[in-house]
From TrEMBL, chain A:
SUPFAM superfamilies: Winged helix' DNA-binding domain. Gene3D superfamilies: Winged helix-like DNA-binding domain superfamily/Winged helix DNA-binding domain. The lineage of its organism: Bacteria, Pseudomonadati, Bacteroidota, Flavobacteriia, Flavobacteriales. It comes from Myroides pelagicus. Pfam families: PadR. This is PadR family transcriptional regulator.
UniProtKB/TrEMBL annotation, chain B:
This is Uncharacterized protein. Keywords: Membrane, Transmembrane, Transmembrane helix. The chain crosses the membrane at residues 88-105, 117-139.
Length: 111, 201
């Protein structure tokens, strides 16, 4: 599991952007739970990795923030901007190509 | 799903302030909601509020305590970690260019007596860049903004000192420091432009 976390690390931004693309807007805790749910607990997104990634995506102009008062506290919702949507498509293509290449290497048969 | 009372949310906020000195609202709001959600989840699975509070803060401790490097000694680790590499790289790059530039162009600087013009103008530019950054982000608050504002004041002050001490007597050997300060100022402006203003609800 620990070794797998290292493999996921390089795709963190792509994972976050894909989730936001699918769900419209999400808050930090919701993102961590969604990742856990989708990967059936195989991958856990720590707060220490999530928030720096969200801040960077926001600084790069790929995310917008909406504040809302929920249950007596302020909730920060993140959603993709126009450029964020385009970037998600690019990132997904890159990720799919990477996965294809990895599969080709893993399935390589010596003749 | 159990929900925390307003009083319990206030307790989380107070703990963040007293225990971790989280002084800026944007960071506090972000962390309070996440911690509250985790406590609620634990309470739903049968934990008492006090125990859930303890378990959640034990987990968050490594992210909330101040970063170990002196430059970030009042900034939560999870925030400082994202700047650490960039800041180190910028220092190394500024040092390399700053130290290399005057020596590379030593002959040219001496032949045309450019040291005073270059040294004086760079020092003045550093002071102006500092003033520009401070006035542009006067009302902005946040860990990164405040750190960059302090840094830019430092660079401007060193440049002012250099200007008053050495104007008229600059040689190429005195140029590295103003050049390094100028590169820092450019980096600080680039970094502060990435920060977002926060309007609390």
């Amino acid at each position: 599991m620990k070794k797998q976390q290292q493999l996921y690390k390089g795709s963190l931004n792509a994972i976050i952007m894909k989730l936001l693309d699918q769900n419209g807007r999400m808050y930090g805790y919701e993102i961590t739970q969604k990742v856990k749910e989708v990967t059936e607990g195989e991958m856990s997104l720590t707060e220490g990795a999530l928030y720096p990634a969200l801040h960077k995506l926001e600084a790069d102009g790929f995310l917008d923030v909406e504040l809302e008062r929920v249950d007596g506290r302020v909730r920060k919702y993140y959603k993709l901007t126009e450029s964020g949507i385009k970037e998600t498509t690019t990132k997904m293509e890159e990720l799919e190509s990477f996965i294809r290449n990895m599969q080709n290497i893993v399935n390589l048969k010596l003749t | 799903m159990k929900t925390l009372s307003t009083n319990q949310v206030k307790q989380i906020e107070d703990f963040l302030i007293t225990q971790y000195n989280i002084k800026y609202q944007d960071t506090r709001d972000e962390v309070i909601d996440h911690i509250a959600c985790e406590i609620e989840e634990l309470m739903t699975s049968g934990y008492e509020y006090r125990t859930a509070f303890q378990v959640t803060f034990d987990k968050w401790n490594k992210h909330l305590r101040p970063h170990s490097w002196i430059r970030y000694n009042d900034i939560p680790t999870y925030l400082a970690r994202q700047w650490f590499k960039r800041d180190i790289m910028s220092v190394l790059l500024a040092m390399t260019i700053g130290l290399g530039f005057p020596y590379l162009f030593k002959d040219l600087i001496e032949k045309y007596s450019l040291a005073n013009i270059i040294g004086g103008s760079i020092c003045l530019a550093n002071i102006l860049l500092g003033a520009f950054l401070l006035t542009s982000y006067f009302g902005s608050k946040g860990y990164r903004v405040n750190q960059l504002k302090k840094d830019t004041i430092g660079c401007a002050a060193i440049s002012l000192f250099f200007y008053t001490m050495f104007i008229g007597n600059f040689t190429y050997k005195l140029l590295p420091l103003p050049v390094i300060m100028m590169l820092y100022q450019i980096y600080y402006i680039a970094e502060i432009r990435k920060t977002k203003s926060y309007k609390p609800l």
